[in-house]
Amino acid sequence: MLASGIPTRVSVPFANSGDRNTIPVPSQIGVTPGLASFTTGFPPLTMTPIEAGGVPPFGQDMNGILYAMSAWNRWQAAGAPVAYDAAFATAVGGYPRGARLASSAADGREWLNLIDNNTTDPDAGGAGWMSLGGGNDNFTASATLTLRQAGLVSVTAAAGNVTLSLPAATAAGGLAFGYEIKRYDGTGNSVTISPAGSDTIDGAASFILARGNSVTLVSNGVNGWFTLAEAVVDRSLAGTGWMQLPGGLIMQWGDANASNASDVWVTFPLTFPTALYSLTVGHLSNNTFGAVGANTATTAGFYLASYGPSGRTNAVTNYIALGA
């Protein structure tokens, strides 16, 4: 088939203004002689010769049948959404696996059904439905994400450290699914994304989402998650500053003056939320040759000391610290 071979779209249902019957579902045999229904179609009486007691089919029935079909044809041709319908779900025994429905609660959100004979309402928290995106679930505290929240997720750690726990990579029955997680706070608190059980994220046991960053996570449907993109790197670029890299590593740097009297406390521009991994201190200038170093380093800062041949000395130093 060719894309150019698309049929002419039906903009008006057949017999829209004509004389037509609304076709009932139950059989009309024994109710109204000759009347059509969705259960029996045109009854046998309409196929019986008139001289043998038959009746001709009703033209209004034909109009009604074609109207019912062409009305749905027009709806689909217009790209209109189809939402959950409780009466329809009951009548057909539930939606089949793979059915896609539009949300009636959030414009743009779609639901994918993962089980057969599903009569539950996805907009009301019904089981067996997975979000295909279009929503935006917001978290201000630790939580476990579900299939219903697949798609766009926003999180803030303004009130404290947050852990978002992922469902099992197999939760969608082997189908790939994912989350686009956006962090919008500017605090030094941590946001940790934790996979379920023995699942991993890019081979690691967890993922640290830097403040102001977003990351897209996609399951492999088996035992892990892949990061497709981390959009933003948070930073404060100055003589004393910091940068949070994709994956959560934080690099900080700055200048500090050592004293010939005692150790000097140096505060990092940003307190490392989890740990200090490495700290390097070096000379910028000094009044005598000597060595500089750090004592009692923490996630918040360190004590700076400088020594020359005769003991403590003043010195201008710089440092680089790595942590998360």
From TrEMBL:
Pfam families: Gp53-like_C. Gene3D superfamilies: 2.60.40.3940. Residues 245-323 form the Putative tail fiber protein gp53-like C-terminal domain. InterPro entries: Gp53-like_C. It comes from the Bacteria. This is Putative tail fiber protein gp53-like C-terminal domain-containing protein. It comes from Rhodovarius crocodyli.
